[in-house]
Design brief:
Blueprint (H helix, E strand, L loop, with lengths): L14 H16 L4 E5 L4 H9 L22 E10 L2 E4 L6 H12 L3 E2 L11 E3 L9 E2 L6 H15 L11 H13 L8 E2 H8 L1
Helix pairs in contact: 1-3, 1-6, 4-5
The structure holds zinc ion.
Zinc ion binds next to strand 2.
């Protein structure tokens, strides 16, 4: 496999991202949609190669950036596939009802949907920004508004406490994380690890 080949392996993604993606895929399948993971991790070499297309290499432009969250192991491209005239066919259509359902479920699990971008929307693209590639914990120092909202919502349900779901990870959120950790007899370090995230979104 060359450095510019496509990678579809979920296990190449950030460990926290994997948990959220697998949970979302479970739910997508449960509503009867057949999801196709088109791409996960992308090497910088591949990103540069894609950027060259339509610029220094022949073909149409396929990307507008050399900086992608795919290279940070926190992005996935996902489309529905359906049997059309006897052939399993990937659906590349932002207006498709199954595409919209995928966007709704992925958003619920903390992914920012490229479909919602006002400039250059990218409907198969889902990402978790501002989280480092190999990080194994979400915390006030390693999160973004979408992830924080998911964690706050789950903490409200699991702690049965009226935490404001505002996407801002301040002391109240850290305290709520610690309350949840103490219930599990774990050290209250104010961080959501891979194991805790699994328990939160279970
Ligand atoms: Zn993408």
């Amino acid at each position: 496999m060359s450095n510019t080949d496509v990678c579809r392996d979920i296990k190449e993604l950030n460990p926290l991202c994997q948990i959220l993606l697998n949970k979302a895929l479970e739910e997508i399948k449960a509503v009867g949609i057949n999801p196709l993971v088109v791409e996960t991790y992308r090497s910088q070499e591949r990103q540069n190669h894609l950027y060259s297309q339509g610029r220094t290499l022949p073909g149409n432009k396929v990307t507008w950036t050399q900086i992608s969250i795919h290279t940070k192991r926190n992005a996935v491209d996902l489309v529905p596939q359906r049997n059309i005239n006897g052939r399993m066919t990937a659906i590349w259509n932002a207006k498709d009802s199954e595409t919209k359902k995928i966007i709704q479920i992925m958003t619920k699990y903390g992914f920012e949907a490229g479909a919602n971008w006002t400039t250059s929307p990218d409907s198969p693209h889902f990402q978790i920004k501002r989280v480092s590639a190999f990080s194994k914990t979400y915390s006030s120092a390693n999160t973004n508004v979408y992830i924080t909202k998911v964690i706050q919502k789950e903490l409200n349900e699991k702690n049965n406490a009226g935490l404001m779901v505002d996407g801002q990870w301040g002391d109240n959120t850290t305290n709520a994380v610690n309350k949840f950790l103490r219930k599990l007899d774990l050290e209250d370090a104010g961080k959501v690890s891979v194991e805790i995230l699994k328990k939160l979104i279970a």
